[in-house]
């Protein structure tokens, strides 16, 4: 059953693969924030940092295994590059999240959903064009 699902996912267009992996990472991110804020009483911005780290594992694994697997970028290259892309995306995420929370006074959960969607476009382009781009041998 898992093998059949994996094969179906591999046949999807790359954009849909990115959405599937990114959606899984975003759902993980949101769930961790909700658990830490609602369950542990943690401040939303701090919870967002911890949720980012958990979601990064889901994101990198999914993109390396599925979305950008055809690039065949070695993990020694792709992992640090994607971490830099993810950190840049997260910095943008945190800035936009702060603005939504403190300037627009939106609910923390809806703010995070909106921010994650906006930042996804940057992440896709940077991951495809740089992080998972296979370097030509020297």
UniProtKB/TrEMBL annotation:
This is GtrA family protein. The keyword Zinc-finger does not apply. It holds the Pfam family GtrA_DPMS_TM. GO terms for cellular component: plasma membrane. The chain crosses the membrane at residues 18-39, 45-66, 78-100, 106-127. It is found in: Membrane. It comes from Comamonas koreensis. Keywords: Membrane, Transmembrane, Transmembrane helix. It is a multi-pass membrane protein. Belongs to the GtrA family. One of its GO terms (biological process) is polysaccharide biosynthetic process. Residues 17-132 form the GtrA/DPMS transmembrane domain.
């Amino acid at each position: 059953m898992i093998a059949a699902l994996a094969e179906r996912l591999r046949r999807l267009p790359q954009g849909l693969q990115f959405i599937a992996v990114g959606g899984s990472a975003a759902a993980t991110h949101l769930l961790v924030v909700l658990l830490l804020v609602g369950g542990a009483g943690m401040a939303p911005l701090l919870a967002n940092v911890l949720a980012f780290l958990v979601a990064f594992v889901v994101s990198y694994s999914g993109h390396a295994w599925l979305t950008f697997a055809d690039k065949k970028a070695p993990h020694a290259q792709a992992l640090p590059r994607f971490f830099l892309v993810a950190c840049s995306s997260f910095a943008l995420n945190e800035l936009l999240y702060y603005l939504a929370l403190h300037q627009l006074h939106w609910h923390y959960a809806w703010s995070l959903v909106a921010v994650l969607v906006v930042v996804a476009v940057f992440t896709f382009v940077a991951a495809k064009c740089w992080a998972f781009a296979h370097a030509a041998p020297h």
